[in-house]
Design brief:
By secondary structure, the chain is mainly beta. It has 4 domains: 31-361, 5 Propeller (Tachylectin-2, Chain A), CATH 2.115.10.20; 394-545, Galactose-binding domain-like (Jelly Rolls, Sandwich), CATH 2.60.120; 554-784, Jelly Rolls; 899-1026, no CATH class. 7% of the residues lie in helices and 39% in strands. It is built from 8 helices and 58 strands. Strands 1, 51, 52, 53, 54, 55, 56, 57 and 58 form a 9-stranded mixed sheet that branches. Strands 5-36-39-49-41-42-43-44 form an 8-stranded antiparallel sheet, with no helix packed on it. Helix 2 runs antiparallel to helix 8 (832-853). Residues 560-774 form the Beta-xylosidase C-terminal Concanavalin A-like domain.
Length: 1029
């Protein structure tokens, strides 16, 4: 009886850091792992919304265990569409991004007064299919939906496919029951789908309204607002979890299911085949994924849903499920509350579990420029030529009959349904608009051929309404490209004439060949007839103005030699000309290459004007985290110019910052806060004036240390931030009282959790700069009044000091010495941040070294196979095996690339040779195994057989009749059982995997560190066959 159970630790990490089962083990700022086999919900306590999770089974990766990847939404941030990784679905780290920039357009780049706040990349879908990874998401302002494809989700380049059409909350789905046919499911209040071509570039069929909310009259939770659909198939059903919020109820999950993917379109009677059931209504946990977990060969599905937990953000939770009659019950009999704990669904070896607890989606940084360079940073863009401006269309009125003094309506025409009539009011001819049926009902005038890219237009009108709500917003919009861009808006008071005016720069690349100016009121859900007010409008004007419009250039996006940690994201596209980690090594330099104007406006929000801070380019940001988060920086301000403002912020649309301003050569430090409620227009200078009682004259000081202590705990739903400063890094002082309350405004402007931001902007001239030395995080605030705690730092230093150079590989030794030196440099800390940042860095490295030193079970240890079932036993390990050589670092597939490989902390060896009419590769892994020998369990170390892979040199037909290349179960004459699956989600199209039923040893290490072994039997992965196309 032979099997590999758990690989035994072959060398131990010395030192005094606690064991992996100790709840006092160190964990990262965003880990919800309790360290005792349980975790709490929600996870992270940081903003990670709209999650979509995909699993790569152990048999399809080189890490020896199931690996999970997650996609989230980051809207206007750059880089965007983060990819996170986990082994246990509890602890996550960011390993990649799908793109560096979604677009080079003005809105994505905060250029020419444009912005993408509340737009950009929204709820997406991550899928693993046939060995490739697919990400699909919709954009609100960048040309609709996109699909990105890669075969290496952590380190590969992505191929972008523009679909040219919008799909709300799209879910990419490959129907494995139909050969992997690709679909996009989408919709709000309804479930629709489109079928894509095999290369995903075209829509080949459309299936609107597969179901709508009206199909489920017996399920009151299913409302016209349901959305966030993701599609899964298992156990014979297609499942579609959705988020909904019925009147008077909280956010909850309604699950759709059907045995027919396309419902009424394929049903014999043409009727609805989907059922709907409310499956979770508890504490607001709702939108997200279902995730599979395989234990002892059995797969179960669980919930991965987020909860609105502002001001921290929208935070995910892994919620266990039990199933009965094909329906799940989540949590504790349907009840899940914030702070609840659940047993881990996936048990990891102790060393790996300890390392995972130190993974995080936030990071301290000393800007060493040592982050890996990822391919997403190397995007190339075809930039449009500067548009030609027709001077005859500048400075002239482009609308006809805007004052209606002709007494005629033309050339104005009705949009949607409304009555337009010229009437005499107060001695003037005006346009009366009545009989409106929706927010777009009203007048419009075609401007084809008159509007040009790169030109800024001034628009204005007067408007009045006499019946309806007390106030109503009116909008001048430009209808083109399938959407409406707001050119101007204002809030009118019932019975009063109101002036509406604004400016709009037509972005480069926008197709304005078919464009209409329209007058509208705002769209909103659940509108009533009272919202469709009758109104009077007059003096509508639209004039192009001369001016310099900034054009995008290659240097904006070209890599500048600097690589930031993946925890960082820029607020909109950065301009790579004006930031650097190389101009002053060890410092982040932010140079002002643009000036703010105070004229920028939101593209989609009431109270539309932006503050200077929101208009600033190259603001570098990370997530905050709850319940308390502290960020500390040191900033050299000696390079600032008059009119420059720089500092450390906590922000969404409301914000507060500790900033330094230079005015008339003098530097002053103080606190700025912009709180709700917001006004439709405001004085930007007054909004960012220092709060009285917070200012400090800096004199000739060159470096100022700033600290933002963010408290999400003291007042639910509010963030209060105490800013502090120091001029020497030792003596700290409060900058006034805590700033706040900072809250969520729900306007869909920023629509994300609060972030820390490092910024620098110019009011007067370009060229000034600041340098930032470090960014240090802690979960302890100064106001907590606690003694500085060095325990983790000192214990980690002691553990690291026990290593000798011969204990580690050269690169490991070099990294350890560098991290250890930074930890030892903390001799007189003045904040917990100065301790926690190096302590967690060193603890995480030690934990990873412990993982590398303790090999784990090989992915699929099996007896030696032959092309037909055979009773021959597994090869026995040699008595005195030779240690493996240092691998050459191959990054190819370990199963078909000859040579030695170091993957996932383990060493693999693959050899390939001719076999019959094909090539066969054998893969072995250097491992410590446990075998049952003469009634006792014996541990041995050496090369252990893993599997055989037959390369794609023969067609499927050539494998006809061979059990390895045909689906089914087989039993040899000797009674050996053999099972083969082909063309499944695990094998991909064009391949088969074979398993044998065999004796094995199952081993598990208990909390006390003692290994327990037992004999068992199971299906074990054995062979792979890949067919030639």
């Amino acid at each position: 009886m032979t099997a590999i159970a758990a690989l035994v630790v072959s060398c131990s990490l010395l030192g005094t850091v606690a064991s992996a089962q100790d709840p006092q083990d160190p964990k990262s700022h965003t880990s919800a792992d309790n360290g005792d086999g349980t975790y709490s919900v929600p996870l992270f306590n940081a903003d990670v919304p709209d999650m979509s999770v995909a699993r790569v089974p152990a048999a399809e990766n080189s890490e020896g265990r199931d690996v999970y990847y997650m996609l989230s939404t980051t809207m206007h941030l750059s880089p965007g569409a983060p990819i996170m990784k986990s082994y246990d679905l509890v602890n996550w780290e960011t390993v990649n991004y799908v793109y560096d920039r979604l677009s080079m357009g003005d809105a994505s780049s905060l250029r020419n007064g444009e912005n993408s706040y509340g737009a950009g990349q929204w709820a997406g879908s991550l899928r693993y299919h046939d060995g490739k990874f697919y990400v699909g998401f919709n954009t609100n302002n960048v040309g609709g939906a996109y699909i990105f494809v890669t075969d290496d989700i952590e380190d590969g380049a992505w191929t972008r496919i523009a679909l040219g059409h919008g799909y709300h909350d799209m879910s990419l789905f490959f129907d494995e029951a139909d050969g992997g046919t690709p679909y996009i499911f989408h919709g709000a209040g309804r479930t629709s789908a489109v079928q894509l071509s095999d290369d995903l570039t075209e829509v080949v069929a459309q299936y609107p309204d597969i179901v709508t909310h009206t199909d489920f009259a017996d399920e009151p939770a299913m409302t016209p607002a349901y959305e966030g659909q993701q599609v899964f198939f298992f156990d014979g059903y297609y499942y579609v979890p959705t988020i909904t919020w019925p009147p008077g109820g909280g956010r909850q999950v309604v699950l759709l299911r059907s045995t027919e993917l396309l419902g009424r379109y394929t049903a014999a009677d043409g009727g609805n085949t989907y059922e709907a059931k409310q499956v979770l209504d508890s504490d607001g946990f709702a939108q997200g994924s279902l995730v599979p977990v395989t234990t002892d060969g059995q797969t179960s599905w669980h919930g991965f849903f987020f909860r609105d937990t502002f001001p921290v953000g929208r935070i995910p939770a892994l919620i266990p499920a039990t199933w009965q009659d094909g329906w799940p019950t989540f949590g504790d009999r349907g009840r899940v509350r914030v702070g609840d704990s659940f047993d881990h669904l996936i048990t990891l070896p102790p060393e790996l579990a300890a390392a995972q607890r130190l993974k995080s989606v936030v990071a301290s940084d000393d800007f060493r420029n040592d982050a890996p360079h990822k391919p997403f940073r190397d995007e190339q863009w075809d930039l449009p030529a500067a548009p030609e401006v027709d001077e005859s269309l500048i400075g002239v009125e482009l609308l006809g009959n805007g004052d209606f003094e002709s007494g005629e309506v033309a050339p104005w025409a009705v949009q949607y349904t409304a009555d337009l009539e010229v009437a005499a009011v107060d001695g003037s001819q005006v346009l009366a608009v009545s009989g409106r049926v929706n927010n777009g009902s009203g007048p419009g005038q075609v401007l084809d051929g008159k509007v040009r890219n790169g030109v800024t237009y001034s628009s204005s009108m007067r408007v009045r309404y006499d019946e309806g709500p007390d106030t109503m917003r009116f909008i001048i919009g430009l209808s083109y490209g399938g959407g409406i861009k707001q050119a101007a808006s204002a809030v009118a008071v019932r019975g009063e004439w109101t002036d509406v005016a604004g400016q709009f720069a037509v972005p480069d690349g926008d197709d304005v060949s078919d464009i209409t100016l329209v007058v509208e009121t705002p769209w909103g859900p659940n509108q009533t007839p009272a919202d469709q007010v009758d109104y009077l409008v007059d003096d509508i004007s639209f004039i192009g103005r001369a001016g310099v419009v900034e054009q995008p250039v290659e240097a904006e996006y070209a890599h500048n030699g600097s690589n930031l940690d993946l925890a960082w994201q820029w607020n909109h596209n950065p301009d790579n000309r004006y930031w650097s980690l190389t101009e002053r090594p060890g410092w982040l330099r932010l140079t002002n290459g643009h000036t703010v104007t105070g004229t920028a406006v939101y593209s989609k929000a009431p109270e539309r004007e932006l503050a200077y801070f929101e208009e600033a380019r190259n603001t570098l940001s990370q997530r905050t985290f709850g319940p308390k988060a502290s960020a500390e920086i040191a900033m050299d301000v000696s390079g600032m110019l008059d009119g420059d403002v720089a500092g450390l912020a906590t922000y969404t649309r409301s914000f507060a910052y500790a900033g330094v301003k230079r005015v008339d050569g003098e530097l002053t430090l103080g606190v700025v806060q912009r709180l709700q409620p917001f006004a439709d227009s405001f004085d930007q200078d007054a909004a960012e004036a220092f709060v009285p009682g917070t200012t400090v004259a800096l004199g000739d000081a060159e470096v100022v240390h700033l600290k933002a202590d963010a408290d999400f705990e003291s007042s639910p739903g509010q963030l209060w931030v105490q800013f502090r400063y120091s001029l020497d890094g030792q003596q700290w002082h409060d900058l006034g009282s805590p700033a706040g309350p900072l809250t969520m405004d729900w306007s869909l402007s920023h629509f994300m959790g609060y972030r820390f931001g490092i910024f620098n902007y110019a009011l007067e001239s370009t060229g000034g700069h600041v340098d930032v030395d470090h960014y240090l995080l802690s979960g302890t605030l100064s106001s907590d009044g606690l003694e500085l705690d060095r325990a983790l730092l000192d214990d980690s230093i002691a553990a690291a000091a026990t290593f000798g150079e011969s204990d580690l590989a050269p690169d490991q030794w070099e990294e350890l010495q560098a991290v250890l030196a930074r930890a030892r440099a903390v001799t007189t800390p003045s904040t917990q941040n100065q301790i926690d940042a190096p302590a967690l860095e060193l603890a995480a490295l030690l934990a990873q070294l412990r993982v590398d030193a303790a090999p784990e079970p090989s992915p699929s240890p099996t007896p030696t196979p032959t092309p037909t079932p055979s009773p021959s036993p597994s090869p026995s390990p040699t008595t005195s095996p030779s240690a493996p050589p240092t691998p050459g670092g191959s990054t190819g597939d370990v199963y078909d690339t000859p040579g030695f490989h170091r993957v996932g902390g383990r060493t693999w060896q693959t050899t390939c040779e001719p076999y019959s009419q094909t090539l066969r590769c054998r893969t072995d892994i250097w491992a410590t195994t446990v075998e049952a020998v003469d009634g006792r369990f014996v541990q041995r170390t050496g090369w252990t057989f893993n599997n055989l892979t037959y390369l794609p040199l023969l067609t499927r037909q050539a494998w006809a009749g061979n059990p390895l290349g045909n689906a089914g179960e087989w039993t040899s004459d000797e009674g050996r059982r053999w099972r083969t699956e082909c063309d499944t989600a695990a094998t991909g199209r064009g391949g088969c995997r074979s398993y044998i039923w065999t004796d094995l040893v199952v081993s598990q290490q208990g909390a006390d560190g003692v290994w327990q072994h037992r004999a068992s039997q199971d299906w074990v992965f054995n062979n792979m066959v890949r067919f030639r196309n």
